[in-house]
UniProtKB/TrEMBL annotation:
The lineage of its organism: Eukaryota, Fungi, Dikarya, Ascomycota, Pezizomycotina. InterPro entries: MFS, MFS_dom, MFS_trans_sf. Keywords: Glycoprotein, Membrane, Transmembrane, Transmembrane helix. The keyword Glycoprotein applies. GO terms for cellular component: membrane. Gene3D superfamilies: MFS general substrate transporter like domains. It is found in: Membrane. This is Major facilitator superfamily (MFS) profile domain-containing protein.
Amino acid sequence: MVPLVGDLAPAKRRATALAVVVSGLLIGVLAARLISGIVANYTNWRNVYWLACGIQFVLGLLLFFFLPDYPSTNPDGLNYFSALYSIPYMMATEPLLAQPCVGIFMLSAVFTSFWTTSTFLLTSSPHDYTSLQVGLFSLIGVATVVAIPFVGVLVDRFDPLLSALFAQIALFASTVMGTLTGTFTIAGPIVEGIGIDLGFQTAQVANRAAVFGINAKARNRLNTAYMGSAFAGQLSGTAIGNKLYSMGGWKTSGYCNSNQPPYYSSVVL
């Protein structure tokens, strides 16, 4: 869907259009966190996954019957295996793709590390939240849903680099604050969650606007490379965050998270 939006939106409005789509994605993530907390609190936790399977099946049917059949942007182009081979080739030869891929790997690791370990923090002393209360904690994401469309307008007006650097500042400051205060006040994780969500999604909009401008006929492959890096970062962040939390608690995982934004800023610059 995201590359399709990149194809349909005019270049001067691409970031704004992408921001609207990202807002929709955020609403889905927000609803998933909330609903999973409610379902796990009142029923068996496995029902969360059964519900997710059912929703995905219904969504697949809706897309099959109602999504228009848009023509290929490269009808006489590569076969499937050549297209797959071209993805790592573009990552190695296109600096405008390689930099966002490295950056989104780092930011995705921070994003998932926070949201995974925050569950452990909130369910332990002194917070002692239930599954329902942990799900309600996700409502802090509403702030990012409201802000992202305005971020898209700013990305359209200014260089994506400036937006990406702003994202790093917000992410770094909120991570440090949440790490230092999260063990004794809920305000710390709230500020950190808002800052990480806003910084991560701002970087997403800015990076995608830059990446989709590389080659109009290869936007799906560019998006594959970009999102592959993001998913790899999410897996790494979840695994490393859990390991660090088990070794040293909230502050140990938080200190590791706070190191990533400066590294990303050095990659961008």
